[in-house]
Design goal:
The chain is of the alpha/beta class. It has helices spanning about 30-40, 65-80, 105-110, 125-145, 175-185, 200-205, 255-270, 300-310, 325-340; strands spanning about 1-5, 15-20, 20-25, 45-50, 150, 190-195, 210-220, 245-250, 275-280, 315-320. It has one domain (about 1-15, about 25-50, about 125-340): Histone deacetylase domain (Arginase, Chain A, 3-Layer(aba) Sandwich). The protein has nine helices and ten strands. The radius of gyration is 18 Å and the shape is globular. Bound molecules: N-{4-[(3-aminopropyl)amino]butyl}acetamide and zinc ion. N-{4-[(3-aminopropyl)amino]butyl}acetamide binds near residues 19 and 197. Zinc ion binds near residues 195, 196, 197, 282 and 284. Belongs to the histone deacetylase family.
Length: about 350
């Protein structure tokens, strides 16, 4: 399978997040992509740079005002004399003006963000836009007849909604891939999200749509990020009712338990009868992950890839999370090699 990746990911660097009461460098760091790149090259996969898609390629998934905010946020921050990374410090909660966009940059951050762990730095927009182009390029390859492709995206995307960012995500790379496939002849597209965290952004984007199925397996939001979405009773609304499926699993979930839930998730995908599959590939389900609590071991990732291949669908893999940086490459390559085996 071919790999698409942009070195521009490295422009998103230098941000800090609040972790257990301390400001620490983000777990989502440039070295993640370096380790993955090394492992996929080691596995003999060919790596290319993305094609150029314009800003308008984002409109099918994201709100134009939100995109404009992301594109100009750091320049606005510098315009008020600030430097370094930007984090929001106030959010519109119950009883507040949720639909009013303040004119100042701090209020705008709180309006569009849903956590204080997703810093924007000077290079964030360029890196996030390059990651989106990687996902669109992988989708284009599959639309043109490739059996599968892997978009090595960084920053990740599945927490980013129609007009929201958070969870280290700015633009929803997997949703962009799914929308691209829809526009290139696939009548039905399934997104399967195996990242440890619920893909709340992808769910938000396709919530009322019957043409894109969203299936996510993840740590239960009762105790795990993003806490406020990803419960089993969320099934879509309007035309999209029944086209969202969530499989929340407890901390400590082992491969035996995970594998049973994966079977149910794959059944839901197969019943939908899609023309193509997008996999939101987070490997933060790994036992060694520093911010997650499942117990998957290295040998389980090729088994996961094998099971995904058994759907016999044209498949776009999009990189999401995974923070055990030194083991990340082998775990990702394990899924891809299991798929190709
Ligand atoms: N200080 C993805 O895996 N922060 N995002 C957790 C740690 C949010 C993870 C708290 C984790 C988001 C793409
Ligand atoms: Zn994750």
């Amino acid at each position: 399978m071919r790999v698409v990746h942009s070195p521009r990911h490295a422009l998103h660097d230098g941000g800090m997040e609040l972790h257990r009461g301390e400001l620490v460098p983000c777990f989502e760091m440039p070295a993640r992509a370096d380790f993955i790149l090394q492992a996929v090259r080691q596995a003999g996969l060919e790596v290319s740079e993305p094609q150029a898609f314009g800003l308008e390629s984002l409109w099918g998934v994201h709100d134009a005002g939100f995109v404009e905010f992301l594109r100009t946020a750091h320049a606005q921050w510098r315009a008020i004399g600030k430097q370094g990374f930007m984090l929001p410090s106030g959010f519109p909660a119950r009883g507040m003006r949720r639909d009013h966009l303040p004119s100042g940059i701090n209020g705008q951050m709180g309006y569009y963000a849903f956590d204080a762990g997703t810093p924007i730095v000077q290079g964030t927009w360029d890196a996030a836009f390059a990651a989106a182009q990687c996902a669109l390029t992988a989708a284009a390859w599959v639309a043109e007849g490739e059996r599968s492709a892997y978009a090595l995206c960084r920053p990740p995307g599945h927490h980013a909604g129609h007009s929201t960012y958070g969870g280290y995500c700015f633009l929803n790379n997997a949703a962009l891939a799914a929308q691209h496939l829809r526009e290139r002849g696939c009548a039905r597209v399934a997104v399967l999200d195996v990242d440890y965290h619920h893909g709340n952004g992808t769910q938000d984007i396709f919530w009322e749509r019957a043409d894109v199925l969203v299936v996510s397996l993840h740590g239960t939001p009762e105790t795990e990020y993003p806490y406020f979405l990803g419960y089993a009773d969320e099934r879509g609304a309007g035309a999209g009712e029944g086209f969202t499926h969530n499989f929340p699993l407890p901390r400590g979930t082992t491969w035996a338990q995970y594998s049973a839930a994966l079977d149910s998730a794959l059944d839901a995908v197969a019943r939908f009868g899609p023309d193509a599959l997008v996999v939101s590939l987070g490997v933060d389900t790994y036992v060694g992950d520093p911010i997650s609590a499942f117990a998957l071991e290295r040998e389980h990732f090729p088994l996961m890839g094998r099971r995904l291949a058994q759907l016999r669908l044209p498949t776009v893999f999009v990189q999401e999370g995974g923070y055990a940086v030194e083991d990340l490459g082998l775990n990702v390559a394990g899924v891809l090699e299991g798929f190709d085996a």
